[in-house]
Amino acid sequence: MKPFNTYLRILGRQYSIDFTDADYLMDIDGKSAAGICNHWEQRITLARRHPDKVKAHLVHEIFEAIAEVLPIGLSESQIEMLEAGWFQFLKENNIYLLWEAIDAAYEEGCQNSSRNEERIRREER
Ligand SMILES: [Zn+2]
Questions:
Q1: Which residues pair with 46 in a beta bridge?
Q2: Which long-range contacts link 82-87 to residues 24+ away (Cβ below 8 Å)?
Q3: 86 Cβ contact partners less than 8 Å away, ≥ 6 residues apart
Q4: Distance between Cα 60 and ligand 1 center (Å)
Q5: List of E strands, the chain
Q6: How far apart are alpha carbons 58 and 64 in whole angstroms?
Q7: From the CA of 64, how far away is ligand 1's center (Å)?
Q8: Whether 33 contacts 15, CB under 8 Å
């Protein structure tokens, strides 16, 4: 994968997301890792892997960032389970299509209810 970087907003904080050419990264404990979330620098770094692995690692590091901000006390194995569940969910569903459908249905509902209110007002006269 060609290295590149971008940004994501996570709970109001801007994290830089670096997709590197490195095979392994070193975490603060000196252990090798395929993904690292540096809370101090608000930076997520991801090593080169198969695209599905990179995406799963990205999901994992996003949960690491969320768990850092919110006092939910997630363990590494809980984050791994959330990673597995969310990666699969995101891979198999287009949540944004559903969100757009929900927004469209809501907008249509608002238009219908304001049309109904208008009709009721006209009938009351
Ligand atoms: Zn982790």
A1: 19, 35
A2: 83/56, 83/57, 83/59, 84/56, 86/59, 87/52, 87/55, 87/56, 87/59
A3: 59, 63
A4: 6
A5: 4-10, 13-19, 25-26, 32-33, 35-38, 43-46
A6: 10
A7: 6
A8: no
Taking only the tens place, the pLDDT of each residue in 23-34 is 999 988 899 999
Residue 54 CB neighbours (<10 A): 17
Local structure of residue 15 (DSSP, 8 states)? E
**What's the gap in Å between 88 CA and the centre of ligand 1?**
17
How far does the centroid of ligand 1 lie from the alpha carbon of residue 118, in Å? 55
Residue 124's H or E segment, with its range, is helix 95-124
Please state, as a whole number, how many other Cβ atoms lie within 10 Å of the Cβ of residue 15.
21
Structure tokens belonging to residue 91 = 């891979």
Q: pLDDT tens across 78-122, in order?
A: 999 999 999 999 999 999 999 999 999 999 998 888 888 888 888
Contact 113, 119 (CB under 8 A): no
Measured on CA atoms in the order 84, 55, 22, 12, is the torsion positive or negative? negative
pTM, rounded to two decimals: 0.84
